[in-house]
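not sure who needs this but someone in the group chat was asking about Pseudoazurin from Enterovibrio norvegicus DSM 15893 so here u go. i didnt clean anything up, its just raw.
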Amino acid sequence: MKKPILVLALLFSFHLSAAEHEVKMLNAGPEGIMVFSPAYLNIDSGDTVHFVPTDQGHNSVSEFGPEGGVTWKGELGKPVSVTFDKEGLHAYQCEPHSIMAMVGIVQVGKATNKEDFHRFVDSKEAMFVMNKGRFKAYGEQVK
């Protein structure tokens, strides 16, 4: 009888500890045009991120993550919520504005895939027609 109660208590406490975060999709913000705000998040496993189209014409689409990590593709102008349960670095973009470096990073726990991530950032930076260096600057926040 004690084991089922302990399991339920652990599951319940895990559910209570999960946090929710909001990322706005903006035409302009403190870092320039076509940005996610915040563009870098450091969260815990089990947390949920709500991508909110504050300005229209944006979406959030996963681009890179740890093996077995969550992937998503939000619709244009629609909010999308993503629960992250795999530790590591996850990168995402706005599809219509990816060449303008409308990108972001979610770090879940430890940066277990840091080397692969930095190689990805380097290759992605070469595709940007404006806001060059933005993605690398976000990557410098990785702990």
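also The longest strand covers residues 20-29. if thats useful
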